[in-house]
Structure to design on (226 residues):
């Protein structure tokens, strides 16, 4: 079974700082990769996803992530964070099984706090 | 409005009671999922469904029952609620290989 590890459970940054959140997964086959964000009191929203092709993917709100296959990593980045980026961030994977009903396997989440 | 909705949004119940959480989606997605979110665990898959009348267990199915008589609805039932089932429950449906989540139901079992 696959697993997902997010290295930082809590991150505190000042506005305009650069952000990188780590995500590593374990799975022997091809996977689809996702980053979701959960703002306080809200449901999960998709930030970005990677299925194939260019390993550097861009998402909403200035976020991007890079898939490094050799490192089984899919780290999330943003060059300059804003106070409104305060949220919980989840990395998730599912096997690329060609349309199967596999659910997502989530990391435990990173709680990001941006100080004004 | 199109999308995925859950009801109730908040629920308080007592140990031993039966509780049903509702999920409705308007996209006609075939696949639907139930997750629970707990501090320190992220989200964990409870049950999923590939189509009407087809359901299967996820990572943490014990104590839960699901049904899928119609494509758009995927109710989750706690047959006899326990305190360990206090959690936030998210329903999701899958379209274009991406899962879209509902607003969640916050359940407290006393």
């Amino acid at each position: 079974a696959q697993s997902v590890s997010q290295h930082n459970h809590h991150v505190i940054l000042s506005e305009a700082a650069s952000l990188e959140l780590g995500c590593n997964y374990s799975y022997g086959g091809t996977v689809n990769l996702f980053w979701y964000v959960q703002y306080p009191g809200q449901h999960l929203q998709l930030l970005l996803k990677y299925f194939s092709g260019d390993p550097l993917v861009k998402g909403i709100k200035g976020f991007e992530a890079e898939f490094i296959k050799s490192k089984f990593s899919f780290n999330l980045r943003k060059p300059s964070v804003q106070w409104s980026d305060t949220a919980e961030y989840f990395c998730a994977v599912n096997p690329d099984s060609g349309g199967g009903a596999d659910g997502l396997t989530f990391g435990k989440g990173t709680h990001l706090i941006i100080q004004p | 409005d199109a999308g995925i909705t859950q009801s109730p949004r908040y629920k308080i119940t007592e140990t031993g009671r039966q509780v049903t959480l509702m999920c409705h989606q308007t996209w006609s997605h075939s696949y639907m999922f139930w997750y629970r979110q707990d501090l320190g665990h992220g989200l964990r898959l409870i049950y999923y469904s590939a189509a009407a009348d087809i359901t299967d267990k996820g990572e943490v199915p014990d104590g839960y029952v699901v049904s899928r008589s119609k494509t758009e609805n995927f109710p989750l039932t706690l047959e006899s609620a326990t305190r360990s089932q206090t959690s936030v429950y998210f329903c999701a449906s899958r379209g274009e290989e991406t899962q879209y989540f509902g607003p969640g139901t916050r359940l407290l079992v006393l």
